[in-house]
């Protein structure tokens, strides 16, 4: 082969080899697989904590002065003129010689066992019913007997929920007093402390009719001194 042709063949081989190396260098490198993040299980939302019933504030009967005032005939409460009990002609039928009823002291729900009267209060003789008049006259009459008003409102919802079954049974038996034993409602509770017993009076009224409960039972135990 002539020298010139040999040199051309050699140069062509070097050129082709260089192109092959460039193509190899330009070949893409397989990308590394993307890292995957494992999904974390969702944390269930915590259920809202139940609202606990408020701690009862023990009622101390010793904080109430003993009354020696003369008591009217049972049920001890005299209504103002123009008003009477629904069963005025048969009050005995509205009395239970022994029953168990709740009274709200403003901080504690006490259950009283003893003689119980309950009835509705109506206007008569052309009198227009006045909630304010009946309530004010009852307050004056009860305080004249040595009574002390403990509260003007019923218990809260938490207290009701904690005693729902017992309060429901009571309301079915003493249906006229249902409104007084709904939570957060208007209801006056009085106590008359006698030397040997306690007389509890609960009054509730709407705009055209009232209701009264009188319970007579043993003196409640005083709270233990710390």
TrEMBL record:
* Superkingdom as given in the UniProt entry: Bacteria
Q: Which residues form the signal peptide?
A: 1-22
Instruction: For this UniProt record, give its keywords in alphabetical order, as a comma-separated list.
Output: Signal
This chain's protein is named: Uncharacterized protein
